[in-house]
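Troubleshooting: if your tokenizer reports a length mismatch, compare your output against this known-good record of 130 residues.
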Amino acid sequence: MKRVQVNILLTIGAIVCGIVLTSMTAQGECWGDSQGRWGGVCPTARQKGDQVEVTWRSSSNFDFYQVRWSRPGRGDSQIKINSGGNNGSWALNRINHGVEYTFKVQGCNGGGVFGSSDCSSWSEIHFVTR
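Known-good structure output:
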């Protein structure tokens, strides 16, 4: 199967180096093949007042998701979202305005008390707050 990366823009914005940048809505990377099938975890970010809501959909059902976020001058922070399935959401509250945030989402299966998790690759989006 040949994998072809596609970026989908939900609202008007700019595409820079293959990454969607906008102060309204941004959608991350998914992949598609020559048969029109898509895969991966596809995050979307949208600002609502003083928070950025990150939502995602996936081509697979996962037991849980992990979200990482950062902004210039700060290291990554990470949270585990225990609701599984093929979609989810999480919000970053008390954002700084006029700042570019990076959000990464991955889906995982397994990872019981003594087991390790089998996770997808990280899907990344960049979002500039207004």
